[in-house]
Write a structure and sequence with these properties.
alpha+beta, 155 residues, 25% helix, 5 helices, seven-stranded antiparallel β-sheet
Length: 155
């Protein structure tokens, strides 16, 4: 979490604002990787609960930059592949998206569903909303590209 916490603080954000649950950096087999675990925001809107309720956690999942999003130029939509097509289940939390989007350089990347949460009966007989935790792995090329200042910098 330290590297992402430092980036968040440098940008005037608290770590709790980012939606960041866990982060790590590794350099195994010579490839630098950053691993981030985060919740998916917005899963209770626009009928998305019906989709999330049916997920097993094994579905292919990706984050897709939405630079023309009217509410957030760094918006990262979360989409899952289902037998009947692609479904939008929410977004990477806004403040974390502001940290991650520059590493993607406008590209879609595959992510992993770690856990489907919620759906249990609460003490008052209601059903807790479903949620999704994702694992995002940025590898050396995304990290190196961002450190060079964006798109392939001239050498």
């Amino acid at each position: 979490i330290a590297i992402w916490s430092r980036i968040a603080i440098e940008r005037g954000m608290s770590v709790s604002e980012t939606g960041l649950k866990k982060a790590s950096q590794s350099n195994f087999d010579g490839v630098l990787r950053m691993n981030i675990t985060t919740k998916v925001a917005g899963v209770t809107f626009e009928g998305r609960q019906a989709i999330v309720e049916k997920l097993t956690g094994d579905e292919p999942c990706r984050i897709v930059p939405e630079p023309t999003n009217n509410y957030d130029k760094n918006a990262l939509a979360v989409q899952v592949a289902l037998p009947d097509g692609i479904a939008h289940i929410g977004y990477i939390p806004r403040d974390l998206a502001a940290l991650v989007a520059p590493y993607l350089d406008g590209e879609t990347i595959m992510v992993t569903i770690k856990t489907i949460t919620g759906g249990f009966e609460t003490f008052d007989g209601e059903r807790a909303a479903y949620g999704v935790l994702l694992s995002i792995e940025l590898q050396d090329d995304e990290i190196s590209n961002q450190r060079r200042g964006g798109r392939d910098a001239a050498r």
